[in-house]
Write the structure tokens for this entry.
Amino acid sequence: MNKKIVRISALCLLVSACTFAQKKGIVLPVSNELDEVVITDSKFALPKEKSGKVIIKITAEDLKKRPGQSVAAVLSTVAGVEINGNQSRNGKDLGLYIRGGRGHQVLILVDGVPVTDASGINLSYDLRLLAVDQVESIEIMKGAASTLYGSGAATGVINITLKKADKKAIAGNVYLNMGTQGVAKENSTKINDYNQGFSFNGKSDKFNYFAAVNSTETTGISEAKPAAKNVVFEQDAFSRVNSIIKFGFTPNKKLSLDFFTSYDKLKNEFDSGSFADNKENFSTSEQYRIGFSPKYKYNGGEVVLNSSASSIDRELFNFGSFSYYKSRNVNADLFNKYTIIPELFIVTGTQFQFYEMSNKSDYAYIPETLAKFTMFDPYATVVYNAESGFNLNAGARYTMHSKFGNNLVYNVNPSFQLSTLPLKLVASYSTAFVAPSLYQLYSEYGDLNLAPEKDATVEFGFEARLLNKRVTVTSIAFFREETDAIGFDLTSYQYFNVLGKNKARGVETTLLFDLNSKIRFNANYTFTDLERQSRILNPKNKVNAGIDFQATERLAFSATYQFVSDRYTEYTTYPAPAFNPVLNSEILKNYQLVNANIRYVLIKNRMNIFASADNILDKDFVEARGFSTRGRNFKVGLNISL
């Protein structure tokens, strides 16, 4: 779909919606907020206070307070989460890291279904493919979670829920925002960042539907940073189109059938590396996803099937030649919740996954018939919530991998809500299994003798609610130990298993303070100590803080602060015999960022506008060695509900 058509359509809908809103002037009823529940640690809705994990939930209301920001920008403010590339130009490749881990140790779910790129280096998901305007909420559960979610869930799970049908028969939304994108000290006022889209949805007694199209076009910054101040590099462009259709049928109160199909495409120009410009390099990605999710409720339980198939085609033009990557993935997860007594239920399930990739270039050829594997995993989890305040979540999964044989993982997660104090104590011990990716096995840099990585995580902490629940304090200490961690040596250009055990430890502390009905303060601090891991993307200390001020019923302000400490950037990952920070790295200096936005409701429940400023102090900092970062930039936007 042509991105200009999306923009023109969005503008036309904006004009139509403005006219309609002015004519009607009707205030629509606001839907009641649901009781806060989480689903990630049991796959079924569970009151947050009964969960044994401190799960961070970013709600639809939270996202409204961060208008114009990407999924990566929102996630980067969560304790224990670091996303490298988030502060660079829009389109820079992203690295997602939780608690000092690496990208292949984080599993991303979209509507409960794993999303991966089987042709990628780490079997991980490219967050650039996802439009934040299609997102309803996000849950982040940290720690090993392979018991419920299988391979790849070693340091955490990010469960992204997309928007769905409204309660009305016909509803819609249209938005347009635009802004600058420049580096520090540039003081550019040129509009280089456009985001627009529209959606239609509706619901009746038995049917519901949701359809959306979103588009992004950005330029203004070179990916690589010039080594000398008098050198000017070419600006690198990024564009993306997202479309999704959801359809649901509920023939009766017990059965529901949900279908979805989506198409995402991005094109990205990139450079030759740190301090190295390139005017020709580009990449394209096309993702197709389809899925079917029936649910059946019976007396005492519910059965769910999450099934999907996806394909990603990537084209890379680099150093004068093309490389073509194809990946296919099939997932079918059938699970059942059965309530034995009101305080006790058990979740049993079986998951099947199939991965396949191919690669063709002037330098390598990997046929589809060669690079593939399957996983078949039965699993079970028991959840007990006693009236006394004691909670227990325990389970196990048995992974039968077509290449790596059988692997058992398990978790034990007790917690206790004190009746005499507003305090919940939590603890857990979890193991995880991470299979090497197809690329790490079959590429020219791969090794067919790689062993799967095994992880074990211990965590303990508390959550306290004080001053009539106006203040919430959580603090979690964690320790993770990895065996057969997969590293890449830049001296031999080969993947290999690291000898010995790799360890990470840290503390995450979060504070929420509702000063009154109009002002909320939030802050978090993360301390992460790594033994031998690559430290380029893992600051030892990180602080996030923010304040939300609802000045009037229509006017609101938000401001955020972020501090990222010094980091090591290594020239060789897992060098032998051991990491030497003097010989093998340099230090990237700490940086601080201040962002703010203002929001105003022009017509209640109909039309609102916003303006935001990022990096207000215009700090010139380094996120990744040799790559550009954004300076002070501004964005304005308009959103209309039909």
Summary: The first helix runs from residue 3 to 24. Confidence is low (pLDDT under 50) at residues 1-34, 572-583. The helical segments are 3-24, 60-64, 71-75, 146-149, 438-442. The two ends are 24 Å apart (CA to CA).
